User: Fold this.
Amino acid sequence: MSDAPKHKHLVFSGMQPTNTLHLGNYLGALKNWVKIQNDMPCIYCVVDMHAITQDVGYGRPAELAQATREVAAAYIAAGVDLKKSLVFNQARVPAHAELAWIFNCVARLGWLDRMTQFKEKSGKHKERASVGLYTYPTLMAADILAYKATHVPVGEDQKQHLELSRDIAQKFNNDFSVPDFFPLPEPVITGPGTRVMSLRDGAKKMSKSDDSDYSRINLTDDADAIAQKIRKAKTDPAPLPDSEKGLEGRPEAENLFNIYAALADEPRARVVAQFAGQQFSGFKNALAELAVAKLTPIAAEMRRLLADPGEIDRVLADGAMRAGAIAGPVLAEVKRLVGFLH
Assistant:
């Protein structure tokens, strides 16, 4: 590992409170967070400050507050253990914003200009994008390094941002002659289902922003909705393959096998062998049954938690207090190194 021995292993990750979380969020992140918390201490943040980089203004405050509670409820319902892991929302811990400003002054414009996600999200009208969207990666670096986190579970779309976090950590350490102050956080790569695709188009990632609700399985969907969406998922006319090689060039089939393997915690090769040569209808029925069994308890627990928003707020406040106790001394030392009087 590249992090110095003085840095104890610590995981940091988070999700934005935008719209409803879906199967891709569960298989790509939440399910793995639950496993990781048994191996290392974990900090799981609802990154509400990131959420306003693209959508802020009239009518949003109440929506954002409710979405923050929903994401926190999803964390807990999926199995994040509050006795093992911290859960809080980013805006409650001022160290994130303060450290992000310092990192804005450490990072170079050329580094941010290379961030492909900004180009994708700003589209053809870059001049209309918020400055926050442009500097999103430096806030992400602050999220991670405020806790001197050593490991970050990331999807493909965030790998570049994690690499930037490592660059910022390295430059800060060099600029202020503190070689081991910040660790260089390592990505945590997960297995099948990490990249879950749309149920309507196997070439597109499952997304909260897709117009069609049938493109995704929401974590709040009931059993009937889950089963119906899987049975209506796009497929091709060929029988199911008898080997993983047979999935090549069949994105919809590959996506459904990935989902089954991830939900069942089985190697994809074993799932392919189990259903080899069968028709999609039988496989979809089995997948629907599995998905309902795995996901409906999460939806039920989310509903129970959201029925008492005050309790979720207390969980977030407690998590923020404990997170601040970790980040506060790190920020204080950064300020001392930079030369701020405080």
